[in-house]
Amino acid sequence: MSYNYVVSAHKPTSVTHALVGSFTSRTELNLIICKSTRLEAHTVSNDSLRPVFDVPIYGRVATLQLWRPAGEPLDLLFLTTERHQFCVLAYDERSGEIVTRANGELGERVGRPAEHGQIAIIDPACRLIALRLFDGLLKILPVGPAASGSAAGSSAAAAGSAGSASSALREAFNVRLDELTVIDLCFLHGGSKPAIAILYQDAKEARNVKTYEVLLRDKDLAEGPWEEKHVEGGASILIPVPLPYGGVLIVGEKSVTYHSGASFVAVPMRTALVRAYAKIDEDGRRWLLGDDRGELSLLVLHAHAGAGAGAGAAGSSAGAAGPSWAGAGATVTGLQVTHLGTTSAPSAICYLDAGLVFIGSCFGDSQLLRLRQRGGAAGAAEAHGSGAVAMEVIGASAGVPVDSDKRFDVLETMPNLGPIVDFCVVDLERQGQGQVVCCSGAYKDGSLRVMRNGIGIDEHASVELAGIKGVWALRHGSSAPHDSLLVLAFMHETRVLSLAGEALEEAALPGFDACSKTVLCANLADDLIVQVCAGGVNLISCDGPCLRATWASPPGRPISIAAADGADIVLALSSPPELILLRASGADGLVRVAACALSNEASCVAISAPTYGRPGVADGAAPGEARVVAVGLWSRMDVMVLELPTLRELAAEPLQGEVMPRSLLFVTLAASAYLLCGMGDGHVISFQYDAPIRAAGAAGAAGAAGAAGAADAAAPLLRGRKSVPLGTQPVHLTPFTCNGMRHVFCGSDRPTVISASAYKLLYANVTLGETACMSPFSSDAFPDALALATDVGLSIGNIDSVQKLHVRTVELHEHPRRIAHDEESRTYAVCTIKQLLDNADGAGAGGAGDGASGGGSAAHAHALDEAGLEVNYVRLVDDTTFEIVDSLTLHAGECAWAVRALTLASPDSGARVRAFVVGTAYVDPDEPEPTAGRLLVLAVTDGRMSLVAEAQTKGAVYSLCELRGRVVAGVNNRIEVYVWEDGSASAVGGLAGQLHLERGHHGHILALFVEARGDFILVGDLMKSVSLHRYSADEGTIVDLARDYNSNWVQAIAMLDDDTFLGAESDSNLFVVRKNGGATTDEERQRLEVVAEFHLGELVNRFQHGSLTMQLMDGDAAPLPTLLYGTVNGVIGVIATIPEELFALLSELQSCMAKLVPGIGGLQHSVWRSFHNDRKTADATNFIDGDLVESFLELKRPLQDEICARVQMKHEDLCKRIDELTRLH
C-alpha cells in the first residue's frame, strides 16, 4: 500500500482576485487579495501594505466580491468556489477573527457549468446577488432584513452568525436566460428596480449587449431599458459606470464604447485584450485598464451636466430610457485613452488611495505603483473625489498616444512563481538538497526562478582579502555595548580592522603581534584582550590600550590550538603534546595554573560555556557546577573531558569512526546543554552534556585541587550521541546570537546553522558558498551581524532568523516552456518563446548567441520578424551565473515541447554521448494536431551548443525520457523508441551520429508524458489515464502490461517505485495506482489498481524527484523518499512516502483537527480534499494533508491539548513528530 504526505513548501503566489474596501477596520483601507486557495488582507499605509491575515480557504475561489448592506459598519466578503459553494464573511474587530455570516450550496443536479467561468455580481443598492454558474440560468440571492434563522442557499440552509447581522440572504431562485453563451454581466446603477446588462455571443458568433430588470416579487426577468446589437467582436468586459453618468463601458480588443441607452460614445485603442480594470473616482469618470501585454492605460469620460437623455444613440435598437432610468445628472460626450506605461500582465487592478495602485498578476510579479501627479491648479481641479490623484492626460480621443516614459513609479514588487510550466531539481553539491529552477511566468514576464531552502545572508559590506585563516571580533572593554575591531589571521601575519561608521579600515593595536599567525583572539575578564600565536600569548589591557603581560611557549614547542573563556586560557602545545591552563587577571597578568601530558597531538579544544537559558539559572556557571575542558586528539577517535582547573580526566567519549574531530563547542540551545563535535569529514556529532557537580567545599585554586575538589563523575557527562552529515570538508563551530536566540554556525563547504526547538536540534543550510570561519560582529552600524571569511575575502551581513525558500529571479522577457540540466557541461537547456509584436519589437529579439542555429533558421527568424509573430529558441544557460551563453533558433512555426539531458549509447560500438535532446512540433493552425516534428540532439562543448543529429517525426514530440541508452518519445498517439547510431567525428562539436527509430507503439489518444525505470515505460495519456509497458531490447518489442481504466485527463506523472505510480489530472486531483502483481487472473494483472486519491486543489504541471532540504535523520533512520511538484498558481510542494505507522497517527490527527478547527466560511476539509471531477466524487484515501497537520503548531495551547487528548499522545511527543515533518521542506 502507498501512504503519502503532501505539503506545500511554497504557498500560491498568483493573484486571481483583488478588492479594496474597509473589511477589518472602520478607519483603515484594506486590500483583499485572493491567491486561488488563500485569502490575504492588507492595510494600506502610506506607500506600503501591512499584512493583517493570511488564511487558507477549503476551496478554489471562483468569484470574490466586497459589499456593504444597509446598517453594516464594515464591508462583507462574498465568495464562491469552483464546487459551487458560497459563503459571506465578516471581520470581528474585537477578536481579530473572520466570522461566517452565511454559507451554503449553489449547485444544481442538472445543468452545464458555464463555459466562460463563474460570474457573481452584487446590486449597487445591495438588494440582491446575481450569479451565472450554469449556461442558460441566472441564480438570484435576494438580500433582506436579518431574521433569526437566517439565510438559505439554493439547496442548503446557511450557517453562521447571520442572526446578528442587519441583513441576510434569502432563499435563492433561478431565472431562465435565453442567452446561453454569456461573456460578462453587470448591474446598472440607478433606477427603482435592479437591472443587469449582459454581454453574450449568439449562434452566429456575434456579440451583443442586452439589459434586463430583475423582478424579485415575481422571481423573473423583464425587458430592460436598452439593447445593443453587434458590438465589437472582441468585446469581453462590461464596466458599470456609477451615477451621475450611469450606463456601461463595453471593452473590446480594439475599442472602448460607452452606452447608456441615451448616449453612445466609442474610442479606438491599440489592439489588446484587456484583462482587468479599476475605478479611480467614485463617480466613475476615470478608470485604469490593463491588458494582456501589461500595458496600463487611463480611460477618461468627458461629459457635460444636464438632465440627460436625448434620443437613443445611433445604432441602438432600443428607445430612450424608461421612467425608472431617466434623469441622469451628466451626459457622456467623449472618451479618452492615455497610455501610462508597462507593468506585469494584470489579472486584477485596485486603485487604493492618493495615486496608489495595486497590480495583481497571474503571469508575472505583482506590483504596488504610485501614479505621478500633475501639479498646479489644473491638477488640483482635476483631482476631485476622495483619494483621487490628478493625472496628466495627453493625446486626442481619436487614438491612443503611446508615451515611452512611465507615468508611475514602482514602489514594491511581490514575487510570483506562477505559472510554473516546468522545473528541474539540481543538487550541485551532491548533499541531498535540491536547488529548484523553475520556468515561471508567461510572455514578456517569463523568467527563471531559482529556489533554495535555507537561511539567507543580507550582506552589508565586503572586503577582498584572500587567504583568511581565522576571524575574531573584539570590544574595547567588557562595558562596551558593541564590537569595534575585527582580527584577521593569515598564514604568516595578522591584521586588525576597525569599523569607522559603516567603513572598515586597517588599525594598529598596541602590544599586538601583527607579524605572526594568530591562533586565538578574544576578550577576557578585567577588560583584557588575549592574543595566542604559535610562539606565545600576549595579554593586552583595554585601558590605553597597552601590553599587560606575555607568556612564551618553550623553544621548539609551538602552540597549535587554544581556547579561552572568562579568565581561563587553555593551550595545546606540540613536541611533546601537552595541555596547559593559564589564568589571566589585571593584577597578576598570566599565571600558569595546571598542565597535563597528552598521548597525542590535540586537534581541537573547548571550554564549557556558561549555561545561557538554563531554567532558574542566570547567565554564567550554574551554582556548584564544575567547569570542564574538552579535547580532541589526532589519532584517538574520542573526546576527552578534563576538569578545570586540575585538568584531571573525567571521561573519554568514543566517536565511533575513523575521522578525527576538528572543532569542539559547548553550547546551550533551548535550555539544553550540548557538546558539539565538528568532524574532518563534514559530519557534526552532538552529545547532550550534563555538567559535573563540584563537591561541597571544593576550592577553585590550583593548589587546593584534590579529593575535596573532585567532580562527581558517577553519572555520564555525555549522552545521546547523534551524527548528522553536513558537508565533506572539516567543520568549524562558532556560537552566535540572533534576535535573542542562541545558534551555532558550522563553517564548511556546506555552511549550516544549528538551532534548537524544545524537542531537538534543527539544521538549516546557509545560502552561501564555502565558508572557512565566522565570528559574531555586533557593531553599532550592523547589530547582530556576522563576519564571514570565504576563499575570496571577508563579508559582513545579517542572517535570517528563520529557514525559508530563497527565490532568485533571472529575467528572460520570454516565455520559458521547458528546462533540463546537464551535470557534465554545467548548463541548462531552456526552451523559450519570444513574442514579436511588431518590427521594432522584433529587432534584436534573438539575444545572445542567436547565430548558433541549424537548417537555415536565421532566414525563418527574419520572416517571423516581418510577420510580427513568435520565435522559438533553445537557450543554453550557465548553471552558476545563469547567463545565456548560446542559443539555437528553431524553424518558423516550430515549437519545442520537450527537452531532456540524456546519455545515449550505441548498441554496436558501445560509445556513449551526453547531450540535450529536444522534441519539437510544427504547429499549423489548420491542423487539429501537428503532423510533423523533430528530435534534435545538441552536444555542449566549451559552453557552445552544436546540433549533431536530428530525426524527423510524424507528429509532435510531447515528452522524452531515457531507457538504457535509448530515447523514448511520446509522439502524438504513439510512443517511439529511438537508438543512437554512432558515426564519424565531425569538425563541429567532435561528435556525429543519428537517431534511428527502433520500435513504435500505438493505442493512445495523446501520449503526453513518458517516464522510464529499468525496462518499464509509464505513459500518461490525455484522456486514458496512465498505462504501463515493458520494453525488450533483445526482441525490440514494447509489451502492454497494465493500465488504469479510469478516464483521467492526465497533467503529470511520476514513478514512485517499480510498482507504484503517481498521477495528477486536470481537475486538480492526485491519484496513485499500483501494479497488481499478486493477482491470480490475467484480467486483474492487466489493471492498475487505484490505491490513493486526493484533491490537491492545484493544477500540477510537473513532478520531479528530489528534496528541498537535507533530511538530517537521527541515528540509523532512513530518509523519507520525496518528490516535488510545481503548479499553475506558483506552488512548490513536497510529496513524501511515509510508513504505515506514521500514516495511522497522522490520519487520526488530521481527522481530529478537521473536526475541531473549522474552515473559513464553514467550508469542510473532508469535502475539500475529496477526489472530485465531472465523473465521480470519492473520499480522499491514503493521503495526509500536511498543510493541515503542520498548522497544529500554530494553534493555541488549550486547543492543542484537546487534540493531544483525543489522539492519546503527549503534547511534547506530538510536537516532535510534526516538527520532523516540517523539515521535509
Largest sheet, order of strands side by side? 83-84-85-1-88
Overall average pLDDT? 83
Query: Which spans of ≥5 residues are poorly predicted at pLDDT below 50?
Result: 148-164, 307-328, 375-387, 392-404, 611-623, 696-714, 838-868, 985-990
Largest sheet: 5 strands, mixed
What share of the residues lie within helices?
under 10%
Based on CA atoms alone, the radius of gyration comes out at: 35 Å
Number of helices: 9
Structural class: mainly beta
> What overall geometry do the principal axes of the alpha carbons give?
globular
Q: What is the terminal separation in angstroms?
A: 24 Å
Quote the beta fraction.
over 45%
How would you classify the quaternary structure?
A: single chain
The number of strands is 88
Structural descriptors:
1225 residues; mainly beta; Beta-prop_RSE1/DDB1/CPSF1_1st; 9 helices; RSE1/DDB1/CPSF1_C; five-stranded mixed beta sheet; RSE1/DDB1/CFT1; 6% helix; single chain; five-stranded antiparallel beta sheet; 88 strands
In short:
This protein is mainly beta.
